Amino acid sequence: MGKVYYISKNVGLGMLVLTVCGLATIIALSVAYDKEKSKNQGNVGDGASDSTSTTTPSTTPDTPKEPWDHYRLPDSLIPVSYNVTLWPRLKPNAEGLYIFTGRSTVIFKCVKETDLIIIHSRKLNFTTFFGHHAKLSSQGEAPVPTILNSWLVKKTEFLVIQLGSRLSAGVSYSLHTEFLGELADDLEGFYRSEYVEDGVKKVVATSQMQATYARKSFPCFDEPAMKAVFSVTIIHSRDTVALSNGKEKGSLDKQNHFSFFFQCKWKWFGNLVTLRWWNDLWLNEGFASYVEYLGVDYAEPTWNIKDHIILYDVQKVFAVDALAFSHPLSRGEEEVNEPAQISEMFNTISYSKVCSSCNFTQHFMQVDSQKLSMYSTLSPTFADNIARFEALLILNSHSSSPAVSIINRAQIIDDAFNLARAKIISTTLALRTTKYLSKERDYIPWESALRNLNYYILMFDRNEVYGVLQAYLKKQIQPLFEHFKTITSNWTRVPTGHTDQYNQINAIGIACRAGVEGCRELIKSWYREWMKNPSRNPIHPNLKSTVYCYAIAFGGVAEWDFAWNMFKNATLASEASRLRSALACSKIPWLLNRYLEYTLDPTKIRKQDAPSTIQNIARNVVGMPLAWNFVNARWSYIFQQYGKGSFSFSNLVSGITQRFSTEYELQELKRFKEENLSVGFGSATIALEQAIEKTTANIKWVTENKAEVQRWFAQEST
Q1: From the CB of residue 7, how many other CB atoms can be counted at a distance below 10 Å?
Q2: Using CA atoms in the order 563, 569, 573, 579, what is the torsion angle rounded to 10 degrees?
Q3: pTM here?
């Protein structure tokens, strides 16, 4: 007879509710999908008459009065296709500037009568035709209105064309422009990047169009719902190569042209259904975040990559979404207008919350009776459950059939720390979930524990608590360090399991941090061997980031300078990135200050790498105050260079302030905000408010828990 599993009525009802919630999630997402599809495939060409030149009544001094004062395009025109030619000059002109020239013809359809053409344009200098910025023609026999006037609006980034009469609804027109722009190194639109090969500087023209940068490359209807077909021609010299993510149509050798024909082919939530506006960015990025796990899992099923969702999305978004300065998945369209507000939407909520929801839904639909029977043994009192959890973990360590799954072990640890932060259970009760780690060998539970313990490190690595915390970490990590030393035959082999390779990195990194005997010597021996023969690196690629960092932290000027020289001569981007990050690990203040100054020199640190380099230095307990002073003193320059639209700029603020936990640091943060209101914070605006909120919470947490935590670590580290 087959096994029968029994559950209580309360548990059964609870799981029924979870199932209903899962179904509701699927239905809600399906409705959102259908709504967006309808918006993009609806009746846009109904021929209704509506002049976009009518002024908006003024209610306050800040209310936009004209159509071009709004950040959103009018709904009177929709693009059909673009024919764009761009010619980047990869050598500076007489004024020392890198430039590009271009021409564009966009065919658009008029869906509502209007005497205005409003199209996005930013930092482009136009060739005039009879005193105007563009030429207008009809695609049929319909009469073409004359152009009365044209002008550029800097604030809303528009080219405005005033016509002498209205465009006719249902008729297609073409707008031709010719323009010149700077091929700047600002990481926006069509921009310049540089690298060194065999001691020779090479210049590349590359592009970043999302979210509001296409308008810096050519005039366009630069909104996500304004989809069209693009034909792009790149003019370049014969000794260079043009590459595209689109389909190559052919090359024109006589004119040194390389032509591409490409069309947006994002499947599902890209081309079939495109978000109408950036407030619903989660429709694109959230589902993409989830599907990437499915793709890797299909290609490499033995990696169990979907288990990592717990670490990289679920636990991550829980921490952010608990803040008052979080935001719902979908915000009101009126809340997301300016380019900086749009860039702010590219955040943890948009990416990880949907990914986590999809994962929850899938698992709710797959809960089996054996798991339900385990849930039925849980007590309403979390302290009782912790005791049962500890007992089950002891059983785990002596059994080939784990009593608690890897995912559940990781999630129980994370839940306990979150409940402690919410003051539902005590901090020491949460810490008890880590006592079994000396017997744990799997990556995901270890990583979950280390991510939570990292908060304790950040709060206490500048005061007396850190000594006993470090001793406790040493006690827990030493068996794992010895385990990997054994299975790798004294560090000469690579662990066979994919997650074991991840956990080997944890074992070495935390062991060196905690002072486990043999770790420092291991790191230094590998690095010394490399320094003796730079052409032969003995460090396995899996371990390079950890070994580089700790070798520089344990070393002095010679180790730092060696890494800097290897960084300058690196031919692989991944190797350069590892070395650039490791250089921030030094414990010598003057070296870190010099490195901070290097971020202002694009010949030393590429412009696109400067913010993350400053952030890496701030992760270092020695570098944190140096990075804060550096950014505080140079905020205006840093903001102008990186802050107006960069997706990752917010990470700079959150990264530097993650250790802030004193009243002095809170006042410093508030003073920084007040003193730079006139400069602005761009895409870091929400991050700054979150930093103030987190610092306030950190102060309160340290005050309430410092003494108790110190006693607990002291007791458990012996």
Answers
A1: 17
A2: 0
A3: 0.68
